[in-house]
Amino acid sequence: MRESKNYIASVISDVKFRNPCESEFLQAVEEVSHSLIPVFQKNKNYMDKNILARMCEPERQIIFKVPWMDDRGNVQVNRGFRVQFNGAIGPYKGGLRFHPSVNLSTIKFLGFEQIFKNSLTGLPIGGGKGGSDFNPAGKSDREILTFCHSFMDELYRHIGPNVDVPAGDIGVGSREIGYLFGHYHRLKASFENGAFSGKGLAYGGSLIRPEATGFGVAYFIEEMLKSQNSTIKDKEIIMSGFGNVAWGTCLKVSQLGGRVTTLSGPDGYIYDPEGVSGKKIDFLLEMRSSGRDRVEDYAQEFGVEFIKGRKPWEVKGDIVIPCAIQNDITLTDAKLLSANGTTLVCEGANMPCTKEALLHFAENDILIGPAKAANAGGVAVSALEMSQNSMRVSWSGEEVDKNLKEIIKRIYKASSMTAKEYHGSLIDGANIAGFLKVADAMIAQGIY
C-alpha cells in the first residue's frame, strides 16, 4: 500500500511541477490517480513501467492564434487549442469547445478525462480535446463562419479520420460543425467525412447523435437504479444547464416517466413543478439557437418561476443531474442537496462536482454516477458515426439507439464489477476499468 501511495504522490507532485496553475487538469489527475492505488498494489508492473506518469503527459499540445474579422470590420484574435492526449487504442477523439472560459488547463482536463471515457465504451478511440476562448453568444452567423474558417486554417493540419476526429461540445453545435467540416473539405480537397462526427445527416451524420449524451445519462441512471430495485418512473429530477446534454436527458427522462423540474443558465434557474416535457423540451432548441444564453426565456414562455443569479441545488428532488460545466456543485451545494433528501447524483457534465462535494456525497451514502461513465453516450455514438462513414452506410435511429443503450449497459457493468473487485466506489470502478485497457495497450506497444 505504501509503495503504491508513494508512487502516486510522486506522479502528482511531478504533474503539479510541470503544469503550474492548471487547476482543472490537476484536479482530474488527482481524482483518477487515487482510484488506482489498489491497481498498483495488485500489479506492480504498471508502476515499474511508469504508466501513470506517461498517461498524464499529452502526446501533443497544439496552441494557435485565430484571427477573424467582426461585422464592424475590426480584426479580433482568439486562441485555439487541440490536445491529443493518448492514442494507444485508436485515433484521438473528443469535442471542440467554444467558450470564454477555455484555456489550456480546461482542454487538458477534458482530454485526460476523455482517455478513460473513450476506453470505457469498448470502442477503438483514443483521448483528445480542443476548442477556443471564442464566445459564439451574440455573434452573427457571418462572424461565426469567419471564425470557424480561421480556426480550421490551422487545425486541419492535425486531424483526419485515422489521426484525430473532433466533434462538438459547449458552443459547437451542428452549425459550427458544418462550417468547420466545410472548410476542412475545401482545404483537403477530399471528402473525408470520417474526419468529424456530429455532422448533419445530409453529409454523413448519424441519427441520435445530438441526443446521445443525454440519452446515455438517462440510461446510466436506469442501470444505477436497477441495482437499487428502482426505476426513473415518477422520480423528481433537479438538473442544471439547458444545452445539448440537458436537452437530450430531458427527452429520455420524460420518455421513461421521470420529471425534470429545473434548468439553469448563467442568469439563474427556472422551477417547473409540472416538468420539462413535450413542447417545453422543443423550446430548449430555440433557446440554444437564439444565442441569448438565458434560461429566463423559458420562464417567460411557459409562465414558471425564475430565480435570478442562483443555482437549482436548493430545490428538493430525488435525483440530481448537473449538466452545465465543471465544478458546478461545491461542498456547500452538496450539503444542501443531502439535507434535501437527494439519493442519487449523476454527472451529465464533465467533472461537475468538486472533490469536496464528491466526498460529502460518499460519506452520506448518496449514489454517484461518474461523468466519464455516465456521459459517454455522445462519444459512443460519435464512434458509431465513424463506423457508418467507413462502411458508407446509414443506420436507422432505432438501431443506433439500441447500440447506444447496450454500450451504456456495458459501461455500467464494467464500472460496477471493477468497483467490487477493487473494493471501491463506482467512480473508482470507472477510473480503473478505463485505465486498465489503455495501460495494457501502452505496455504492449513498448515505450509509448
Task: Write up this protein.
With 448 residues, the chain is an alpha/beta fold. It folds into three domains: 2-55; 60-190, 3-Layer(aba) Sandwich (Rossmann fold), CATH 3.40.50; 212-374, 3-Layer(aba) Sandwich (Rossmann fold), CATH 3.40.50. The chain has 18 helices and 13 strands. It has helices at 2-18, 23-35, 37-42, 45-48, 51-55, 104-120, 141-155, 174-188, 212-226, 244-255, 279-290, 296-302, 331-339, 355-363, 371-374, 377-391, 397-421, 426-444, and strands at residues 60-69, 75-86, 92-98, 126-132, 164-167, 236-240, 259-260, 262-265, 268-271, 305-308, 319-322, 344-346, 367-369. Strand 12 (344-346), helix 14 and strand 13 (367-369) form a beta-alpha-beta unit. The two termini are 27 Å apart.
Q: CATH homologous superfamily of the largest domain, by name?
A: NAD(P)-binding Rossmann-like Domain
- Strands in their spatial order, largest beta sheet: 1-2-4-3-5
**Number of extended strands:** 13
Q: What is the domain tally?
A: 3
At CATH level 3, the topology of the largest domain is: Rossmann fold
What characterizes the major β-sheet?
5 strands, mixed
Shape category: globular
